[in-house]
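Subject: Protein record for review, amino acid sequence with C-alpha cells
Why sent: The fold of this protein is of interest and is recorded here as C-alpha cells.
Enclosed: The protein record, placed directly beneath this head.
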Amino acid sequence: MEIRVQQEAFAAGAELDAFTARASGAGAVVSFSGLVRDDTGRMREMVIEHYPGMTERALAVIAAEAVARWDLADALVIHRYGAMTPGEQIMMVATAARHRVAAFEAAEFLMDYLKSRAPFWKQEHGPDGASWVAAKSGDEDALSRW
C-alpha cells in the first residue's frame, strides 16, 4: 500500500505500470485519475491545501480499510496539493485484487472517501477572485453506500 500527498505532477501511465508490476497474485488492476475540472469556464487555477501528517494518516487509514475489506493485493493513492490549472491531474487511485469486482469496488470506495471526507480544502481562483469549493451532497450520498 502506498500513499503519497505531493505538490509535484505525476505521470499516471508510469505510476500504473509500476503499481501493476508489484501487484503479485492479482488478477485485476483498476485505476482512476482525476483532473482539475473547470465547471464555469472562468477558473484560472485551483489551490488545494492540507495539513501535512494529518492528511497522510487519514488516507492511510481508509486505504488500509479498503485493503482489508476487499482483500486487495495492493492499493495506491496519490493526491496533489498546491496550485493547479484546469486539465491537470489532481489525483490517482489504483487497486489490485484477485478478481475485478473487488478491485472496482475498492477503487470506488477510495474515490468516494476522497471526494467527501479526505482532509483537503479546495479554492478556485478566477477573474472575480477566490472562492472555497463547497462539499456536494451527491458526494456524501455516494459514500453512504459503503
The chain has a mean pLDDT of 94. The radius of gyration is 16 Å. The CA atoms of residues 47 and 83 lie 4 Å apart.
